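User: Just a sanity check before I run the rest of the batch. Below are the structure tokens for the first item. I only need the designed sequence back.
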């Protein structure tokens, strides 16, 4: 699958209805388990006064929560216009609109337009992109201090689950696809960009949270 096709599939799958459902869930229950672990770990490292680049930010949960922890400003990049617009409206509701810049599109294609930030986050985003090496390389180059991400376990039992899920998407004619990239390759790219691992922790049966420090 090409990156262009996947980004169009993201537009179709992560639509306004889904965005509104995710925002309602956030209002009722707060961040998901894995996102909460990522946020808690970043707060422990200290984020006051730092800047954030949130790639594939969804309804903006990470930026909304980290503003409460003291970040100065944020950049939100999303391939789904519905999610980006929902995140923008929530930023306005929370009084942070003037501190967030929004970019719609494939991060890889517009990376040169994006300024570096102290923190770069990708919450369940690497698994949505077919060309993992270029995504991780370009995003790592824009992280000054912390690189934090949520990704699926790369194990003997998650890989067949991924294939099963993609098979279901194919049967339902949904063009979106899920990718389980080898974490050792992600780690190698981050180390090559001057990062070292700080945290790697399970967050349920499928997801793991990792934070790297430059």
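Assistant: Here's the designed sequence for the first item:
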């Amino acid at each position: 699958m090409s990156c262009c096709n996947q980004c169009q599939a993201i537009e179709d799958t992560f639509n306004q209805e889904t965005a509104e459902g995710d925002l309602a869930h956030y209002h009722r229950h707060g961040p998901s388990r894995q996102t909460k672990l990522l946020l808690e770990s970043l707060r422990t490292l200290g984020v006051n006064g730092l800047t954030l680049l949130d790639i594939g930010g969804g309804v903006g949960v990470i930026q909304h929560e980290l503003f409460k922890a003291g970040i100065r400003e944020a950049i939100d990049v999303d391939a789904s216009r519905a999610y980006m617009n929902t995140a923008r409206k929530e930023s306005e509701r929370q009084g942070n609109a003037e501190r967030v810049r929004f970019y719609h599109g494939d991060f890889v294609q517009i990376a040169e337009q994006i300024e570096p930030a102290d923190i770069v986050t990708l919450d369940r985003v690497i698994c949505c992109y077919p060309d993992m090496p270029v995504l991780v390389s370009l995003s790592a180059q824009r992280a000054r201090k912390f690189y934090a991400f949520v990704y699926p376990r790369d194990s003997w039992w998650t890989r067949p689950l991924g294939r099963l899920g993609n098979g279901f998407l194919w049967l339902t004619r949904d063009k979106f696809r899920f990718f389980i990239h080898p974490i050792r390759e992600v780690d190698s790219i981050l180390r090559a960009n001057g990062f070292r691992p700080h945290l790697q922790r399970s967050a349920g049966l499928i997801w793991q949270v990792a934070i790297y420090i430059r």
